Amino acid sequence: MLTPAFDLSQDPDFLTVAIRVPYARVSEFDVYFEGVDFKFYAKPYFLRLTLPGRVVENGSEQGSYDADKGIFTIQLPKETPGQHFEGLNMLTALLAPRKSRTVKPLVEEIAISEEGVEDDDEEFDWEIEQSPYEEVSEGALNPQCCYGFGNLRSGVFQRLQDELSEVIDIGDPDSTPAAERRQKRQAAELAKFDPDHYLADFFEDEAIEQVLKYKPWWTDTYSKMVA
Fold first, then answer.
1. How many structural domains does the chain have?
2. Pairwise CA distance, residues 116 & 120, whole Å
3. Residue 86 near residue 74, CB atoms below 8 Å
4. Which segments of the chain are extended strands (E)?
5. Which tens digit of pLDDT belongs to each residue from 107-163?
6. Domain CS spans what residues (predicted)?
7. Do both 90 and 147 map to the same domain?
8. Do the strands 62-66 and 45-55 form a parallel or antiparallel pair, or are they unpaired?
9. pTM score > 0.90 for this model?
């Protein structure tokens, strides 16, 4: 999972967390906060913060999403209104786990009951290591490996290696020149081409004829405007 870029600010009553998640599925996200714990998940992003002060869920919390900027803004009520939270700019400290996992001894006594040996159930470790988000400069990328409208984008997939298989067919588009991408696209099209499917669409075109005959509402409006 990816650690998103984020920023913290505050006023006397609220701690505000702004999280930049441009490639997230905004319809599927979760937010959890209690005391000094804050967790945010929106695939493929996960953010866990250890806050310098306590927050509380009391009904006054708020959240919003800016679709143009890809930013979630979440306002968390302070447990003690008026308290000033120190160190909001110390990102590494905020990302550090609140406590280390308990280290098991190298040698321990094993108790065997009459019913047999029972395996310990391992819970998922939410205290995973995180590192602050680092923006990849376009100057560090191959200038030939641009894509998108007008070839104005690059580096978009640098931090999405684990999710690429669900989005695109090319394994590493940021280091694949346009000519090579075109060759791979043509090869994939040839491999997936089905002559029977093509002939069926060519001769059984009733559905296509209905689509071609359809006139949207703006056709008459445009005709009246130019008349």
1. 2
2. 13
3. no
4. 5-10, 14-20, 30-42, 45-55, 62-66, 71-77
5. 444 444 444 444 444 454 556 666 666 665 544 445 557 787 877 777 777 666 666
6. 1-89
7. no
8. unpaired
9. no
